[in-house]
Design a protein that fits this description.
Elements (H helix, E strand, L loop, with lengths): L31 H21 L3 E4 L4 E4 L2 E4 L3 H22 L2 H5 L2 H23 L5 H28 L5 H9 L6 H20 L2 H5 L3 H8 L5 E5 L14 H4 L21 H11 L7 E5 L12 H5 L4 H22 L4 E8 L5 E2 L5 E11 L5 E8 L5 E2 L6 E3 L4 E10 L8 E10 L6 E8 L8
Antiparallel strand pairs: 1-2, 2-3, 4-5, 6-8, 7-8, 8-12, 9-11, 9-13, 10-12, 13-14
The chain binds iron/sulfur cluster (2 copies).
Length: 454
């Protein structure tokens, strides 16, 4: 499928003279296959490590979000909002500048799809090598059995890593060890394992052009300066391409880059660049396929200033950079204002007041306290402006373990006095042990009306 009309360079010759061989050129300096293999290894390790080291993880059962090692609570909406918006625009900005390089070099779907194809070929090769005398049917069944067995183990591991982005890894491991298929996390893990297995056996790269929206998004985001993989050849008798089709055979997406630089299947991996260089350098000519900043100026000189080459004078790019900077600044401000201990005190007005046998008046207060830090803390409460007031806590200060939170309603007991107003203003001072400044809440205490007339 192509997103743009074919370019003039894509017209293939009906018949062409044999290319004159020249002395071979030295091998190309850049081999994208090797670079990709390294990137794939690094990004595979990143994919596995992120949830285990809390670099990025949603803990759905506990309603927490981990970002860069910081534990965020679902109530910290500002930080979550700025983090997610920043990541969304970062993806948009990278797609605008570098095209689908993420798909070719970093996407777990691409990494595991290509790995699955390699395992299938490896299994067939091993069976052929060791049991070459078997009939074709037996060899096929044996190779497929090995392939499915390896994929079953790998799918369990990958599904575990993926589910760990949403459920605490140790908790998840415990469920896996007990073959839990009853709780929500256990059922999710089992379904993800099955889907992963089916994906890497049957879907693989088809996922990129059927399910994944990123390829379609890329079509909307790219402009005339976006990084592309493009094929450049002469016309008519000056054509260099020898129609060997190695670029097509080596393409993981099974497309022909000579048809267009704007094919939605193309993940800009650069494998076809290596293929063409390998073939043509032996014949004394450089390859015909290149990475280029936009098809309109593929030969843009490397000496051109980087900002100009990347197109950062373009209004759309400047606007995206501006929005990116805005969300990054917002995230910085929200993080700097974050307090490790959250305290909220609100009056509970279900009942305005009650009277105790000893004559004291009771108003109920709802306390919401959360320790977001990794150390134990205590919070001391003090009442100001209500003489003789007693906040009926079990312990004051309250002690909280790391990540502990609670919400409870307590009685505030106050002795009444002649002429006491029905609405009394007072303050609750909450002083966390790990902070210098206290949280101060200005509230009202309701007394019986008749007391005012005494
Ligand atoms: S590898 Fe190069 S020479 Fe061979 S078909 Fe592709 S573009 Fe033509
Ligand atoms: S056409 Fe080239 S760059 Fe595009 S997916 Fe195929 S091999 Fe990769």
């Amino acid at each position: 499928m192509s997103t743009s009309p074919e370019t003039p360079s894509s017209a293939k010759p009906a018949a062409r003279p044999k290319l004159v061989r020249l002395p071979p050129l030295p091998p190309a300096e850049t081999v994208y296959h090797r670079i990709r293999a390294r990137f794939h290894l690094v990004f595979f390790l990143v994919f596995v490590a992120l949830p285990f080291f809390d670099v990025m993880r949603f803990d759905l059962p506990r309603k927490r979000f981990y970002f860069g090692g910081v534990e965020l609570w679902i109530s910290e909406f500002g930080i979550l909002f700025f983090s997610l918006m920043f990541m969304m625009f970062l993806i948009a900005a990278s797609a605008l500048v570098w095209g689908r390089v993420y798909c070719g070099y970093a996407c777990p779907q691409t990494i595991f799809s290509e790995w699955s194809v390699r395992v299938e070929h490896w299994a067939a090769k091993q069976i052929n090598k060791r049991f070459g005398h078997w009939n074709a049917r037996s060899k096929y069944v044996a190779a497929q059995t090995i392939f499915y067995s390896v994929l079953a183990v790998a799918s369990t591991f990958l599904a575990f890593c993926f589910t760990a982005y949403f459920v605490e890894p140790r908790d998840l491991l415990d469920r896996l060890m007990h073959l839990d298929i009853e709780t929500a996390a256990g059922i999710t893990g089992s379904i993800v394992t099955l889907l992963t297995f089916l994906d890497f056996v049957f879907v693989r790269q088809k996922f990129c052009t059927t399910v994944c929206p990123y390829g379609y998004l890329q079509g909307m985001l790219q402009d005339s300066k976006t990084l592309l993989v493009t094929y450049i050849d002469g016309t008519d008798g000056n054509r260099i391409c020898i129609e060997c089709k190695k670029c097509v055979r080596d393409c993981p997406m099974e497309i022909d880059i000579r048809d267009s630089a704007y094919q939605i299947e193309c993940i800009h991996c650069g494998e076809c660049i290596d293929s063409c260089e390998t073939v043509l350098r032996k014949m004394g000519r450089p390859g015909l396929i290149h990475y280029a900043w936009g098809e309109s100026s593929p030969t843009r000189p490397a000496s051109e200033p980087l900002l100009k080459r990347l197109g950062f004078r373009d209004a759309k790019r400047v606007a995206i950079l501006f929005v990116l900077g805005f969300y990054l600044a917002g995230l910085g401000v929200a993080l700097s204002m974050r307090r490790p201990v959250m305290v909220r005190v609100q009056p509970d007005r279900t009942v305005l007041y009650t009277r105790l046998p000893d004559g004291r008046i009771v108003n109920k207060m709802r306390l919401n306290v959360a320790n977001r830090s990794s150390l134990p803390v205590s919070v001391a409460f003090q009442i100001e402006g209500l003489p003789g007031a007693e906040l009926a806590l079990e312990h004051n200060p309250l002690r909280l373990a790391p990540a502990e939170a609670f919400e409870r309603t307590y009685e505030l007991r106050v002795p009444t006095w002649p002429g006491a107003p029905d609405v009394n203003r007072f303050r609750v001072i909450a002083q966390p042990s790990n902070e210098k400044t206290p949280d101060i809440f200005s509230l009202t205490f309701i007394m019986p009306v008749e007391k005012r007339n005494n």
